[in-house]
Amino acid sequence: MTQDELKALVGQAAVQYVTPDSIVGVGTGSTVDKFIDALAASQIRLRGAVSSSVRSTERMKALGIPVLDASEVESLQVYIDGADEIDHQGHMVKGGGAALTREKIVADLAERFICIADESKLVDTLGRFPLPVEVIPMAAAQIARRFKAMGAQATLREGCVTDNSCHILDVRGLSITDPAAFEAEVTQWPGVVTVGVFARNKASVCLLGTSAGVKTLTF
Ligand SMILES: O=C(CO)[C@H](O)[C@H](O)COP(=O)(O)O
């Protein structure tokens, strides 16, 4: 199966986690696009969806899925999103699509994070994928120096302005052996808006697309 077919498989599988008449949290990316398409095709009646990006909002609206603002919602049963990496404990690296801040905000509203990913995303240790960090533009150089002091290399993502009018640093050369401690440390650096390690908001379930079908990992 191609990677695209594996994404479609897990996008479809995630629909079973959506309860009729509920409000669902929806992430961002090519795997989530497959989920949105499958959700629209399922004809499940929803109170609405809370979206993590302009991209997902536009796709859902075009397919007739009502979109609610995060501030209108106190809690969500589930948040469904992809990942750039996921480890065997459910910690993730996210933000390849630059939507990490809103993704973490919506994930934080949810009781359960359902991660949908193809098998190439499963890793033993986070850090192979360049770690996205959303930053206030005037702090980018100082934050890059802090990563350099850790032995890593941060580069500004060319031409990328986030939905929050901020910039993204992509950080190479990390081996994140303690995701919770790493997230807590980097989050408090001045000028960091969001670090793309999701440890506090880690996955509860991962639907992993494999050539043998969908494998369900629970954490
Ligand atoms: O974090 C994300 C966007 O900010 C995505 O979930 C992540 O990049 C995976 O994307 P895709 O499903 O296209 O592989």
Automatic annotation (TrEMBL):
Its EC number is 5.3.1.6. The keyword GTP-binding does not apply. It catalyses: aldehydo-D-ribose 5-phosphate = D-ribulose 5-phosphate. Substrate binds at T28, G29, S30, T31, D81, G82, A83, D84, K94, G95, G96, G97, K121. One of its GO terms (cellular component) is cytosol. Pfam families: Rib_5-P_isom_A. Pathway: Carbohydrate degradation; pentose phosphate pathway; D-ribose 5-phosphate from D-ribulose 5-phosphate (non-oxidative stage): step 1/1. SUPFAM superfamilies: D-ribose-5-phosphate isomerase (RpiA), lid domain, NagB/RpiA/CoA transferase-like. Coiled coil: none annotated. Keywords: Isomerase. InterPro entries: NagB/RpiA_transferase-like, Ribose5P_isomerase_typA_subgr, Ribose5P_isomerase_type_A. The active site is at E103. GO terms for biological process: D-ribose metabolic process; pentose-phosphate shunt, non-oxidative branch. One of its GO terms (molecular function) is ribose-5-phosphate isomerase activity. Gene3D superfamilies: 3.30.70.260, 3.40.50.1360. It is an enzyme of class 5 (isomerase). Catalyzes the reversible conversion of ribose-5-phosphate to ribulose 5-phosphate. NCBIfam families: PRK00702.1, rpiA. PANTHER family: RIBOSE-5-PHOSPHATE ISOMERASE. HAMAP family: Rib_5P_isom_A. This is Ribose-5-phosphate isomerase A. The lineage of its organism: Bacteria, Pseudomonadati, Pseudomonadota, Betaproteobacteria, Burkholderiales. The gene is rpiA.
